[in-house]
Amino acid sequence: MAAWLGRLSPGEAWFAMSSRLLRTKPVGSMGRGADDLTELPDGSGVGLAKVLTTLDLVSLGVGSCVGTGMYVVAGLVAKAMAGPGVILSFIIAAVASILSGVCYAEFGVRVPKTTGSAYTYSYVTVGEFVAFFIGWNLILEYLIGTAAGASALSSMFDSLANHSISNYMITHLGTLRGLGKGEDTYPDLLALFIALLVTVIIALGVKNSVGFNNVLNVVNVVVWAFMIIAGLFFLSASNWEGGRFLPYGWSGVMKGAATCFYAFIGFDIIATTGEEAKNANTSIPYAITASLVTCLTAYVSVSVILTLMVPYNLIDGSAPLMEMFAVHGFMWGKYTVAVGSIAGLTVSLLGSLFPMPRVIYAMARDGLLFRFLTHVSALTHTPAVACVVSGSFAAVLALLVSLRDLIEMMSIGTLLAYTLVSVCVLLLRYQPDKDTDTHQFISEEDVDNVKDAGDEPTKDDHIMMEGSDRDGSSYHAGGTEGEADDSHFHTGPPSLLKRLLGGHYYTLRLRLGIPDSTARPTPASGRIVTRCTLSLFFMSFLFWSTVIFGVEQGSGAAAVFSGLMATLMLGSLARLLMLIMQQPESKQRLPYMAPCVPFVPAAAILVNSYLMLKLSSLTWARFTIWCLIGLLIYGCYGVWHSTLELDAREQQAHASSYRRYDDNLDDTFSPDDDLYPQEQDERPYQGWSAPEESRHRHQNQEEEPYESQAEDDGEQQGYQSGAGVQNLTGGSRSRGRTNFGFDDEDD
């Protein structure tokens, strides 16, 4: 690495490194990789059958969420953070989850034929470094989710045994200090055994089948209904009176919401199994929304019953729902809830451990993690090494770390991963069209229709003000009325907004500087959105840090000064959002698109960053160590052993060999025109940054000859499809291998 950097100037070294960080994986290579990931648990030679319905996906999402969330998190947050205000904490966490969920759903339908991991999506659409960081945090989510599930099951069995298990551990093994927030914890050998047992089951190829999952979810629903009905006979309104509803104030409610986010993070498993869905493009977004609403209903109802049955300070932190009946002497109810706890926590534990080897295998296969993790057992046809390594780490965490700390640390990693997903959606909406040849984007004929109809919207403006829908004609495949207009500006159907505002609609658009529907994004506008989005991401953390640590916790002149600074930052955030709105949006139409862009992704970024900063400093310290370990692995190994890096070196070696034997050829002779598209395919490695880099490298050679052509077809500026390449290479003369096949002379 040092020798490589020594041969380059600082500018060249920065450009080469940024190219590596932003290179993207070609969409065409994802078909085989997706099949490999989905076929491993079955050991078959073909991909999984598309048999999952939307209801099946909802069942998977609910099962992965409700287990630990309902049986552990509700009582933990109510006892130590928010009191009965845990109800509000769950609602706030649900709003943050829905904002992230709609962005996650759009991210999922952007890339066809993938297993659905956010790591895979970001690698194809955004870049390698962001993909690694998201994948690294997803590993943290699944790792700690497995440990938390094992620890919760251990606490449940301990409660059934009247805490004799924990007493035995403390008596014979002692306690550990420093792992929790001042409290003593004991080495949980039972949790260690549970985590190792589940790891062996997954490594042996026993898949979490849909039928098994559905049966356990039915048990969960029955037990939930039992808790609600039986709990009505033990309610006491005095538990909410006298300031007991918000004993820790609104700060405690928000802190509890950050921890409650853990209870909603299972919806990414819906996207992970998207390859098996009958109609993934429609099932994934609907299933994510339905599962989040179902989980919210379960959490709020259980929290109401729990806090009205037991005073918040007397709630059992390890098995709250079981002990709330034991407090009232209703032991039969306790054992009934125990059955539901076993079912729910088992599904949650399997749901956390099952996708973890998939993400690790995918990252190792791409060269970002160590290659030995890609070893597949010839006996079980599963990534056994990835299963054993990840399961062993989860078992050690379950042994040494308390359940409360596990849940908080899981929330912070997932919040950051979903925040990056929202950032990626915001970036991709305003970048020049890249892969218009995929089945879910508009076709080339539709692009031509857009060009031909470019002036029509301005011609029909007055008609639209009167309520006609003529300009809402669909010239995008799969589009609906009004989709051609700037959907990122309004919060409802465009025709309705135009009817409400009348003639002021276009006046408002003009004053705000919002481009019309015929404008297409350019590399320059894409770079503006990139800078604004990254600034929005970092400034959101700075803004909430000022509010939390300066305004909420400050006093006197310091609080006033922090308030003024926060006001200025809020104005800067609004300005950044306005700059994004003033850029043209991509005309690609997907089966599902997040509504109200850029407002929904920006709101997700702001809410998630606030919840992250409400977590404890100890959680941030642990998370920082985890991120530093990941950056060390990527910087020392992943960036140099990436599959894209190895392919680029191989292609460079072939190109050097070709030039050596091509020196004496006539400059006007082209040995094989079919080779030009192959070189063009190398450029998408740099993803949405390619237009900027391409423009700087080739502006002297191609700026004037292709200025008019670039205005006619924006996709040929760095993102040529097959037809675009033929136009570029099909000139009357070719200058050999120079300039990637571009003609040096005007036609």
Automatic annotation (TrEMBL):
What GO cellular component term, any one, is given? plasma membrane
- Stretches with biased composition (Acidic residues): 664-676, 702-715
Instruction: Enumerate the transmembrane spans.
Output: 57-78, 84-107, 189-206, 218-236, 256-274, 286-315, 335-356, 368-401, 407-428, 528-551, 557-580, 592-613, 619-640
How is this protein situated with respect to the membrane? Answer: Multi-pass membrane protein
Q: Where is the composition biased (Basic and acidic residues)?
A: 448-473, 692-701
One GO molecular function term of this record is: amino acid transmembrane transporter activity
- Compartment annotation: Membrane
PANTHER family hit by this protein: CATIONIC AMINO ACID TRANSPORTER-RELATED (PTHR43243:SF29), INNER MEMBRANE TRANSPORTER YGJI-RELATED (PTHR43243)
Protein name according to UniProt: Solute carrier family 7 member 14b
Origin organism is Poecilia reticulata
Q: Give the source lineage, highest ranks first.
A: Eukaryota, Metazoa, Chordata, Craniata, Vertebrata
